[in-house]
Write a structure and sequence with these properties.
It is a single chain. The protein is 42% helix and 25% strand. It is an alpha+beta fold. A hairpin with a 4-residue loop joins strand 1 and strand 2. It starts with a helix and ends in a 14-residue tail after the last helix.
Length: 153
């Protein structure tokens, strides 16, 4: 059995154990789509080093405030805290993404379930944090380029 099929079998078993929605295998691209629930989908891609997990955290304003961007960068710099996870901005739609790596060693020693569960847990926390940050920015009366709105309702 090849690695892709082995990983697919592991993901399907984990999906049942973690009560995830659906796991769709895209064998032609060595990728999976993991539907966690109606709001969360994790994309996974097999690489030589293991699996890369990617998910949209939330949409960002066209020009996010400096504090939000700084927090994203600081988080990404905390490798020991973030367990190899980092934020990025999707070049296609400008949304904030969470990316995490699951090494081949983790795949082999059976810790994929922990890695996936903790990624999903962190994704939910990051989504709540970023949505609060963006809402606070809007409530402060900042426009999309970070300047105070001159006209208020």
């Amino acid at each position: 059995m090849d690695n892709y099929q082995t990983y697919t079998d592991q993901l399907v078993a984990l999906g049942e154990k973690l009560e995830l929605g659906r796991i769709i295998a895209h064998g032609d691209t060595d990728a999976w789509e993991i539907n966690v629930d109606e709001r969360l989908t994790v994309a996974a891609k097999m690489t030589d080093a293991g699996i890369v997990l990617m998910a949209t955290v939330c949409d960002l304003p066209r020009r996010p405030d400096a504090d939000t961007l700084r927090a994203l960068l600081e988080y990404s710099a905390e490798w020991s805290v973030a367990e190899g996870r980092r934020f990025a901005i999707d070049p296609e739609d400008g949304s904030a993404m969470l990316i995490g790596d699951v090494s081949a060693v983790e795949m082999a020693d059976g810790t994929l379930g922990y890695a996936l569960y903790s990624f999903i847990d962190e994704l939910r926390a990051a989504r709540a944090w970023l949505e609060r940050s963006i809402a606070a920015e809007a409530a402060a009366g900042l426009d999309e380029i970070g300047h105070e709105n001159l006209i208020r309702p």
